[in-house]
Amino acid sequence: MYDILETTTDRATLSQRDPVLSTLLAQLPVGVVIATRDGTLEVVNDVARTLLAEHRRTKPPEPWVARRVDASEAVDPIHWVIARVLLTGELIRDEEIEFLDCRDEWRTLSVSGTPLEDARGEITSALVTFVDVTATKRAKEWEPLIRAISRL
What are the C-alpha distances in Å from 27 to residues 32, 46, 93, 114, 149? Predict the structure, then answer.
């Protein structure tokens, strides 16, 4: 089966091209995806790769349908952000996306997207970053109850 996550630039290749960028992407606690104009995922760091692989396990392809997985299915939680950035040049900051994880629990990603342009100002790719903010959101939701209980 075609695996979109194995066709992206791996760390060794990226390290040869730009060792500083490769190290930065490996160190960041943020998922980073760079998608080209045709939708190909050119760079996917380890945080993003882990989340996308987990997401694919929650939505396996139907066993009776023989087909290839395309990029939009592989990155379902953020594929529309990539499309918006590529098609409209929209700058997206901290937009929250919710999705079901492999345990059927809702998780929230804070997603940002930026178009990357060539010298002529044409959009050539999209840089999308995301961070899992589920724990922070849950803590904020429980905060009023915890305060009320602590006053008893």
Answer: 11, 9, 21, 20, 39
